[in-house]
Amino acid sequence: MKRILVTGGAGFVGSHLCERLLLEGNHVLCVDNYFTGDKRNIVHLMDNHFFELVRHDVTQPFFAEVDQIYNLACPASPIHYQYNPIKTVKTSVMGAINMLGLAKRIKATILQASTSEVYGDPEVHPQTEDYWGHVNPIGIRSCYDEGKRCAETLFMDYHWQNNVDIKIIRIFNTYGPKMHPNDGRVVSNFIIQALKNKDITIYGDGKQSRSFQYVDDLLEGMIRMMNTPKDFIGPVNIGNPNEFTILELAQLVIELTGSKSKIAYFPSPADDPTQRQPNISLAKEKLNGWEPKIPLNEGLIKTIAYFDDLLKKEIITV
Ligand code: NAD
Ligand code: UDP
Question: Does pTM surpass 0.70?
């Protein structure tokens, strides 16, 4: 049994991770300030004696004795990370410093949930880990992109300077049950709009692409990465290379929900990346043949069922 700290553990990915780590027989300490997380995501874990929950903001130091730290605390959707951009940078940068300081003191292995956004609007396609990216440092996405880039720098420097045992994964667009219903991400937006027979809001011409990964595939890659030998630190892309345009996604969601929704076009947000697809060769090689298993239509069906249930029980009103 390992003692594992998950920051951002009440969020979408973090709550799935806490559940999975508990199922694997670990002791899990979940830390969250509930900015975008929700106690409802983890309430079912409360009866487990090996689960602990602490309200804490990672911009402040935190002390605990653990063997591993998954650093996920950070709002991940444009609406939420742009709500208070200075706080977003603080969460990424000061959160990384605080958690790396903790890892250094207690000699824990620490994994950073970095992002495909470090590649910005990429000029290399698909993106490999050695691509340095094409990021606007002063745009509306910069608080998130540059915050995450600086966090990667801190992870590498704590490793080189202080010998901290680090792992960096770059997560590509991930979806699934427990996504925040109001965070404006494309999968949750389209599903809720389709279930309510409202217009499907495409920003731009819908030809921009993303590669969507179901959350269970991410968890498998993330946990394998955490448990790789000390000398493999990444960064490593974790994503599904099957690329879809946003228009294709809209059409698939309409089909799978049997919705009467029509597609409506709106202006594209600033700095919206046009194409994004991971090259996952490194992950396959280093993570014991890891690759995503769940195709988009299968993952969407599970996610649609989740949001359908929330709407029927009137747990969400959007
Ligand atoms: P999320 O917003 O659902 O979860 C983030 C969690 O962090 C929330 O529970 C939130 O309350 C918590 N949090 C935010 N600021 C905090 C702070 N200062 N102190 C303590 N807790 C704080 O997002 P998610 O989709 O679950 O993403 C989890 C991580 O994975 C994030 O670091 C994100 O950048 C990264 N990531 C996610 C995706 C994706 O597609 N979901 C893609 C790339 C990277
Ligand atoms: N998008 C859209 N309609 C929506 C929400 C998003 O067309 O209702 C587009 C958005 O402009 C982007 C893509 O879908 O091109 C993915 O957006 P999301 O915010 O989910 O992820 P990210 O841009 O961070 O990859």
Answer: yes
